[in-house]
Design brief:
This protein has 2 domains: 115 residues, Winged helix-like DNA-binding domain superfamily/Winged helix DNA-binding domain (Arc Repressor Mutant, subunit A), CATH 1.10.10; 287 residues, Kelch-type beta propeller (Neuraminidase, 6 Propeller). The longest helix is centred in the first third of the chain and has 24 residues. The radius of gyration is 25 Å and the shape is elongated. The strands form 6 sheets. Strands 2, 3, 4, 5 and 6 form a 5-stranded antiparallel β-sheet that branches. Strands 1-25-24-23 form a 4-stranded antiparallel β-sheet, with no helix packed on it. A hairpin with a 4-residue loop joins strand 21 and strand 22. The protein has 445 residues and is α+β, with helices and mostly antiparallel strands. The relative contact order is 0.10. It starts with 11 loop residues before the first helix and ends in a 15-residue tail after the last strand. The protein has 6 helices and 25 strands.
Length: 445
């Protein structure tokens, strides 16, 4: 609780962080300003909240302004530092501060009611396969130090069921479900600077959607809307212009599908159509802006993962509302064109996985996370040349599903997801260590 006579109970470093907090700076911005890590900022914030008896950034900011512990631009009175002598007489709160407090309270109330309104059907008591309780994950004790996994700057907004795609040298995190509900938020991550920036939001906010890049454009078909229904809306993002446009709608509303792209086509496999899981295969030709129909899978499922390997589409895992799948199949477009069955079986994963992500680097595939009915505490690596799977470690000690997974520069990135709550994690897996000869040193060591 505050000490007598309005003197701040905080340390010098905590006072600096509180000063930046009141300006509206994010944890990442505070970390950059003070040259410390975002995790260190979080630790200081917890200590600040405990010392002054508050529960949130808003409460801390309002108390700091009211007690005069911080200096705001245009303030008539400077804030007291920890070392400053206490004032002999209390100073009445200036008019501008009273106006600021009233405005801040109104904004908090408006934000609360906006979240409640926009959440629509997505309330914690009304969750299903397509949604989760609107809570943040408590990662304390979950994250662990694992060889080859490196924790990078977390997403500014924790979310699961997002689309994640790599283009040029950046990662694009699109849409998803956050603690505030379904969103169209788009944020870009630069591995070189280890920082995130906001971009133009997707016009139709969706979760349970996937993204693919063809000819420099990012395609995001369908998804699950804030109304609690799948959509046939098809929107495309131009990363150079930071703009969105629409394409021909899907043949039917669809979400929770697996998607992969070849040089000139995009394949949507399985998913949920609003009444149940489906086995359908839809093929989109960007140049013609048209949809074709492929040969369905043998069983309906959603939340599988797909990836293009040469001219073959590999589809792994999935969930049908009752069970998870460990099977992996290959879809051969050339066989379909000949009128033959395009589906062949590949080796099963060691563990059934629904809500997994898959990425390819070098000569291997990486199936990350999953675990719907049971916790998958390891991930897997697939060698196409031998049709075999091997286990790799997981950076979380518990299940992790519905994250975004993609590859960039010989590394696999797993971002966001769900593990008892929405996650902001950004984990990098350094795959190149697999190909080092014995005794070699890597820059990751």
């Amino acid at each position: 609780m505050p000490t007598p006579e309005n003197q701040s109970p905080l340390s010098d470093r905590e006072q600096e962080i509180l000063q930046l907090l009141v300006t509206g700076a994010t944890n990442l911005q505070i970390a950059g300003r003070l040259t410390i890590s975002p995790n260190t900022v979080k630790v200081h914030l917890r200590n600040i909240y405990e010392k002054i008896g508050v529960q949130s950034r808003t409460e801390a900011s309002m108390l700091a302004v009211r007690e005069g512990w911080v200096t705001l631009e245009g303030a008539a009175q400077p804030a007291l530092s920890v070392s400053a002598a206490p004032k002999a007489q209390p100073v009445p709160t200036p008019l501008w501060q009273r106006i600021y407090l009233v405005a801040a309270l109104l904004l908090v109330l408006l934000a609360f009611f906006y979240v409640q309104f926009m959440s629509g059907h997505q309330t914690p008591s009304q969750t299903n396969d397509l949604s989760d309780p609107q809570v943040l994950a408590d990662v304390a004790g979950m994250a662990r130090s694992v060889a080859q996994w490196v924790m990078r700057a977390p997403m500014p907004t924790a979310r699961s069921r997002l689309a994640l795609v790599a283009y040029e040298d950046k990662l694009y995190a699109i849409g998803g479900a956050s603690a505030s509900g379904v969103t169209g938020l788009v944020e870009v991550y630069d591995p070189e600077s280890n920082g995130w920036l906001p971009l133009a939001s997707k016009p139709t906010g969706v979760s349970n959607a996937t993204a693919a890049v063809v000819d420099g454009m990012i395609y995001v078909p369908g998804g699950y809307t804030i109304d609690g229904t799948p959509t046939d809306v098809f929107e495309v993002y131009d990363p150079w212009r930071d703009t969105w446009t629409s394409r021909s709608p899907l043949p039917q509303p669809l979400c929770a599908y697996a998607m992969a792209a070849t040089r000139d086509r995009i394949y949507l496999i399985g998913g949920w159509d609003g009444s149940g899981y489906v086995a359908s295969v839809f093929i989109y030709e960007p140049e013609e802006d048209r949809w074709l129909t492929g040969v369905p899978m043998d069983e309906p499922r959603g939340f599988a993962a797909a990836i293009a390997l040469d001219d073959t589409i590999l589809v792994a895992g999935g969930y049908d509302g009752t069970k998870e799948f460990a099977q992996m199949y290959a879809y051969h477009p050339a066989a379909q064109e000949r009128g033959a069955d395009p589906w062949t079986r590949r080796a099963d994963m060691a563990s059934p996985r629904g809500g997994l992500g898959i990425a390819s680097t070098g000569d291997a595939l990486y199936a990350i996370g999953g675990g719907w009915t049971a916790s998958a505490d390891f991930s897997e690596r697939y060698d196409p040349s031998t049709d075999t799977w091997s286990s790799i470690p997981m950076p979380l000690a518990s299940h992790w599903r519905n994250m975004g997974v993609t590859a960039l520069g010989g590394r696999v990135f797993a971002v966001g997801g769900w593990s008892g709550g929405h996650l902001a994690l950004n984990e990098e897996y350094r795959t190149l260590l697999y190909f080092l000869p014995l005794g070699a040193k890597s820059d990751a060591e």
